[in-house]
């Protein structure tokens, strides 16, 4: 949904132009003061004659740095480059102000590689963790993300989200004026983008299944909106909703067996739940207002959605067992596009309190709302699976960008596309 709820039936207005499959380059615009000083020594192998196809330690460094919570030491400032624990001179690293040290190796092993890392506390001179991975050349980058996740969790006490993916919608206009739309999936750092589907008609509202392998989305390829579910890896897909009128805003139930949808087949847009196994359809809301943008609570017992039933867009929650509906938002004249944090404690949403459309987070227990962004042109928030970050769409001039902000507003990143624009990001869950 854009910034007028009445435009919900015209989802095409949410798209902006960009080059398909453009690489997202992350630019850190704000980090945490007092970020943890850490050194990731370049990984190598004494017996290897050729370099591996990925710079594993470089990926780990970039992951930790872009989280905004770590301040990695530059390679050029390292006094030594140990690969074994016995080679570490802790005094040297203390002089450099480093609190934690990561060393590792990437060596050929059969048809693939063996990747080993160790994380040390420099002050206490002890190993905190270490693992060995067997992987192939195509998974080296993912292995690096997994190592960064382990380091992040060991030092911060919460899971990392580097080994996850993001989905987003792109549009490109060629020299003849023809438009091409693409649903893209990339690693969380913007690398390895690939199109899941390319169409001459608009694509929108991507939503990840809880297993991290399927996407639901809206396509206009038949001339009217329809909802599809597609396997990201295999490419197979199913048409799951093509009722007369609006078919939009798909949202997965926590068990992955149902979709909440917005349908207008009986008049006004209302929330429905579709059982993907039986294809049974249950109407959840029954109003003459516009009810849209559903998102499930993690326990599957309620759905949060946007409605203009009170004359202006606000966020409501309906309990599925009883139909009891409660208004959740009261700060500002506009609150929409809600999405619930993985732990069910917070809502991210688009808020307008007189300063334009910005991303905000609301504490569901207290109702307190914190506005995290200030461009006035922000939309489509989506939580990282660890709940620490929110990806969203914004604009810089006429250019559409993706941005990331931490839930406390202290860490900010921009995801810049090479020569293009992007909209409607969705952060994947952890792969199952």
Overall 3D form: globular
- DSSP helix count? 3
Q: Give the number of domains.
A: 2
How many beta strands in the DSSP annotation? 30
Helix/strand structural class: mainly beta
CATH class of the largest domain: Mainly Beta
At the fold tier of CATH, the topology name of the largest domain is Neuraminidase
Structure overview:
This protein is mostly beta strands. It has 2 domains: 284 residues, 6 Propeller (Neuraminidase), CATH 2.120.10; 128 residues, 3-Layer(aba) Sandwich (Rossmann fold). 8% of the residues lie in helices and 44% in strands. It is built from 3 helices and 30 strands. The strands form 7 sheets. It has a 5-stranded antiparallel β-sheet, with no helix packed on it. α1 packs across α3. The N terminus is likely disordered.
Core attributes:
Rossmann fold, 432 residues, 2 domains, single chain, 5-stranded mixed β-sheet, mainly beta, Neuraminidase, 8% helix
Summarize the structure.
The chain is mainly β.
Task: Give the SSE layout.
Elements: E1 24-30, E2 36-40, H1 56-66, E3 70-72, H2 90-95, E4 100-109, E5 112-121, E6 126-135, H3 140-156, E7 165-173, E8 179-187, E9 194-199, E10 203-208, E11 214-219, E12 226-231, E13 237-241, E14 247-252, E15 258-263, E16 270-275, E17 281-283, E18 291-296, E19 302-307, E20 314-319, E21 325-327, E22 334-340, E23 346-352, E24 358-363, E25 369-371, E26 379-383, E27 389-396, E28 399-406, E29 412-417, E30 423-427
Parallel strand pairs: 2-3, 2-4
Antiparallel strand pairs: 1-29, 4-5, 5-6, 7-8, 7-30, 8-9, 10-11, 11-12, 12-13, 14-15, 15-16, 16-17, 18-19, 19-20, 20-21, 22-23, 23-24, 24-25, 26-27, 27-28, 28-29
Helix pairs in contact: 1-3
